[in-house]
Amino acid sequence: MLTLIKNGYIIDPASDREGLYDLLIENDRIKLIDKHIDEKSLSDDRLTIIDASGKYVMPGFIDLHVHLREPGYEYKETIKSGSMAAAAGGFTTICPMPNTNPPIDSPEGIKQILDKAEEDSLVNILPVGCITLGQEGKVLADIRAMAEAGAVAISEDGKSVMDSGLYVKGMK
Predict the structure, then answer these.
(1) Which of 73, 80, 81, 156 is packed most tightly, with the most Cβ within 10 A?
(2) Against a cut of 0.85, is the pTM above it?
């Protein structure tokens, strides 16, 4: 399967490329970026051509602060519905906050999010764990174990750790 995106304004910080380009994608991978790719030179009968004139073409965005509300508040949003919204907006990676019910304050909670994301998500999910157990600001969660399970950050999201000593200990 070949897809040719023509005349898009490409912004690619990784290659320091910006301007009008054509982009050839083969089997979901970028094969070529050039000022002009002649579609007549492509022999694949499954070629799809997209005219991106007046449009931007760039890497997927990352949202570092989303509320997926799963587990516990699925009536507000789920991993599936949140990831669909993210994908529709051009986001390929999202970091869900841990203020769920129960709060994501353990390696098991992190694993639960990652397992559910594997089943339901259209985008990459990088979970955030709580700083304290239950987001109560009293006892540190096992931050190292959550990181080993796949948490990429910690947050009390919307709550504060009032004990500065506990907070500093958590940051170490």
Answers:
(1) 156
(2) no
